[in-house]
Task: inverse folding
């Protein structure tokens, strides 16, 4: 049974659509994936608050200073929205954040997205997709992080523990 769960976890991670890396092997301090819940359990007010929090955080001088204070002075950032599944049009591709201009440009992309929601809550699917993005991005960082937001139990896809454990085994950090 443990071998089957490991295989399922690998398959879940493999579902992530490839996204082009900006620089093959480009050194960054952190590879960060923002995984954002857009399931129907989120009402429009919660969704607006969640989105505003991401946009405000990216624009905040403390964030910019933290990015610039790292060894390479830059991070790689990707964003995707999830519910029961992750749709291709819900993904903002990898971007290097190295100062206020690039952080504001990424924040603008998030702020400009339409409000929408879909059925289901697959935390495991979101973790698997995020892990796939980290595995296939072409950057080089000492820290790889999936920051996942959500407000409901996993009700679609694999058990959360399977994909969580697979990501942790690869040295990924999960904030949620």
Result:
């Amino acid at each position: 049974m443990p071998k089957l769960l490991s295989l399922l976890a690998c398959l879940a991670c493999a579902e992530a659509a490839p996204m082009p890396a900006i620089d093959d092997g480009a050194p960054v301090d952190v590879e960060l994936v923002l995984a954002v819940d857009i399931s129907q359990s989120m009402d429009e007010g919660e969704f607006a608050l969640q989105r505003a929090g991401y946009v405000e955080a990216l624009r905040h001088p403390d964030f910019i200073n933290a990015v610039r204070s790292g060894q390479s002075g830059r991070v790689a950032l990707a964003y995707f929205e999830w519910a029961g599944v992750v749709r291709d049009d819900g993904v903002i591709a990898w971007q290097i954040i190295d100062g206020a201009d690039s952080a504001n440009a990424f924040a603008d992309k998030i702020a400009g997205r339409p409000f929408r929601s879909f059925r289901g809550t697959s935390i495991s699917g979101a973790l698997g997709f995020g892990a796939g993005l980290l595995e296939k991005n072409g950057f080089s960082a000492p820290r790889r992080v999936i920051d996942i937001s959500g407000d409901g139990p996993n009700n679609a896809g694999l058990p959360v523990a399977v994909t969580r454990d697979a990501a942790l085994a690869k040295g990924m950090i999960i904030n949620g």
Observations:
- Residues 1-22 have pLDDT under 50 and may be disordered.
